[in-house]
Amino acid sequence: MIRISYFARYREHLNQSGEQLEWQPSLTSIETLRQLLLQRGGAWQVLAEGNLMCARNQELVSPAEPLADGDEIAFFPPVTGG
Amino acid sequence: MAVQVQTAGFDPGQLLNALHQADAGVGAVVSFVGYMRDFNDGQAVARMFLEHYPGMTEKALQAIEIQARERWPLLHVHILHRVGDLAPGEPIVFVGVSSAHRQAAFSACDFIMDYLKTRAPLWKKEQGAEGAHWVDGRDSDQQAAARW
Fold first, then answer.
1. Residues of chain A found within 8 Å of residue B53, distances taken between Cβ atoms
2. Residue B67 Cα, gap to closest chain A Cα (Å)
3. ipTM
4. Please, which residues bridge with residue A66 across strands?
């Protein structure tokens, strides 16, 4: 199982704060997960944005980061705190 | 480790004074306070909502404190960021750093804010007369963080 969270503009655009997906060995990286989500079309194209940020188990990572069963993944737009 | 993420307001003066009161070895305190403005990108802003990633936001701020301590000889570090609903004039963020000498405190405070603005999962949504919108990330913040 992989838990996925969406934040801020992405959360509103996708109309959900997160979901769970069955683990599958073909999900070798966060990038392959993103490609899988992009195949849903429509609103999901927001995840194609070039400045998308992602986290694995609550740490910032690049999309090339490997995935493992049980991971908590998050996708979000550039942060704007401060 | 002094990192706080909270909805409640705070008194910047009180936090600033606390940075040296308990430690007579402190020779320098540098702080930054970010306030909510009533104007941004040419539009009046009436309210703001700050979204965060519970758990990760705190971890990201702690990681930034650790990196600052690896770079400079710091005594105390306090990072406080508010989340939830805010009104113009209210303080949003406090970063306070103490050290024996001023240069480490100046640099560390600057570094912490640059990293906070580009690495801590926090997002501002502004509410004005023409509706609500999410604030876009700024290239200038990315460039500032890249200096370090």
1. 5, 7, 55, 58, 74, 76
2. 14
3. 0.96
4. A29
